Amino acid sequence: QVQLVESGGGLVQAGGSLRLSCAASGRTFSSYAMGWFRQAPGKEREFVAAISWSGGRSVYADSVKGRFTISRDNAKNTVYMQMNSLKPEDTAVYYCAADISRTVVPRQIRHQYDYWGQGTQVTVSS
């Protein structure tokens, strides 16, 4: 069983920055790929970014490429997402997720993830 707890969301003006954190339980965190997804009101949950178990590979949605950076600290069982140059369209609930398949290449499909956090709200005002 893996428990994930997100934090770091909030209200920020357009152009600002936020850093999300996701703390994971379990001794095998370092073997999981981790991802961030987001869901805006009335929309499907969509992929944002993912990182391999080692941190050596990461992938991003085109909409956030160059603005968001995913990273992880396996010693702290935590994955982060630094979000810069935020836009109003980034407003959503952000979820972290764990993929326990031991994939080398981080994946982008929602149903490929096994465990989810409760989400943290990010609101970007114009």
Characterization of the model:
By secondary structure, the chain is an all-beta fold. Helices cover 0% and strands 47% of the residues. It has no helices and eleven strands. The strands form two sheets. Strands 2, 4, 5, 6, 9, 10 and 11 form a seven-stranded mixed sheet that branches. A four-stranded antiparallel sheet has the order 1-3-8-7, with no helix packed on it.
What structural keywords apply?
126 residues, mainly beta, 7-stranded mixed sheet, 0% helix, globular
Structural class: mainly beta
- Report the major sheet: 7 strands, mixed
Overall pLDDT confidence: 96
Distance between the termini: 40 Å
Question: What is the string of SSEs from the N terminus onward?
Answer: EEEEEEEEEEE
Q: Could you tell me the strand content as a percent range? A: over 45%
Q: Gist?
A:
With about 130 residues, this protein is mainly β.
Structural topology:
Elements: E1 4-7, E2 10-13, E3 18-24, E4 33-39, E5 46-51, E6 58-60, E7 68-73, E8 78-83, E9 92-99, E10 115-116, E11 120-125
Parallel strand pairs: 2-11
Antiparallel strand pairs: 1-3, 3-8, 4-5, 4-9, 5-6, 7-8, 9-10, 9-11
